[in-house]
């Protein structure tokens, strides 16, 4: 049964982009103009629906994500934060994050967004070099990225930015220089992602057409290992496969996901995982297309497309697939109590023992972890041990 005393996270999805994004597998969310009043009322209604179900919970984090949320009018951001404070009690140290791109239009809003209540920003830098930025389809340059980080540090208590490695032709030395520059800003959190080729993306098309060859696994492993060494030496060890932070500066919102806590998602395409007082745990999915989401809110008072109860075996699998990405791993004893399933029904204990002999996993007093060596084979290991 879900513990209704545990903190809750809120995700608000803003679907509008300034221009077409190479990472989106659909671009119908690109708009020249947005009726802000219409969207404010719809988001408030969607939020109220979730608040009725999760009343009495404490909100530990609020995250504005999606298309280009840093172009939301600061008054709208402030209004949504205020509404959330009316629906739920706020944790004393609530984390309120907003995603941003490092262009001048968005950076000029940082001061107003901070005044609206945002206290953490996550900036999509991805690279400081011109050729990788062109390959990634990014419109900013090194100077804009540098200015965005500096301005963010002036206005927000916590700043994160991301970088991508295993780019075409990228050597270990080139990536090392990127890390050196990234660390020079002194932020307490960095997200460092290996380029992956997802189905339906522009990158998959480039690979299929022979215009781009993904990094060889051994080379990608070298880049990953250099990343771990550099970040640990700088005092920002990996607390999750791709996320590094000084102790205490981990993303509280994302930790809710990885620790399989409850979170509600509102806005087009938003997902959620939540339990209610009756003991039912369910997965929620909002209508993805903005027009369909708006129609649903007008018709039903919420934007839900589906609200599906989660069977214990589904919950166990999701909790393990997420939690084993964390350096802390998963406490199987705690998971047994939460989901009312024995460990032997959730993981392959023989496979764990076999992998432990090769120093790929550890199981100590019920705490299951993927080792540093095993992290290079994370997906394969998860497939071996999670039932």
Report on this model:
The chain has 387 residues and is an alpha/beta fold. The protein has two domains: 8-257, Aldolase class I (TIM Barrel, Alpha-Beta Barrel), CATH 3.20.20.70; 313-385, Arc Repressor Mutant, subunit A. 41% of the residues lie in helices and 22% in strands. The protein has 16 helices and 15 strands. The strands form three sheets. A nine-stranded mixed β-sheet has the order 7-8-6-5-4-3-2-1-9, sandwiched between helices. It has a three-stranded antiparallel β-sheet with strand order 10-11-12. A hairpin with a 2-residue loop joins strand 7 (238-240) and strand 8 (243-245). Helix 1 (36-53) runs parallel beside helix 2, helix 2 packs parallel to helix 4 and helix 7 runs parallel beside helix 9. The longest helix has 18 residues, at 36-53. Mean pLDDT is 91; it is low at 20-31.
Count of β-strands: 15
The percentage helix is 40-55%
Q: Which fold name fills CATH's third level, the topology of the largest domain?
A: TIM Barrel
User: Oligomerization state of this entry?
Assistant: single chain
Query: Could you list the spans in which at least 5 consecutive residues all have pLDDT below 50?
Result: 20-31
Mean of all residue-level pLDDT scores: 91
CATH architecture of the largest domain: Alpha-Beta Barrel
* CATH top level class name of the largest domain: Alpha Beta
Largest sheet strand order: 7-8-6-5-4-3-2-1-9
- CATH homolog superfamily of the largest domain: Aldolase class I
The number of domains is 2
**How large is the radius of gyration?**
21 Å
Distance between the termini: 21 Å
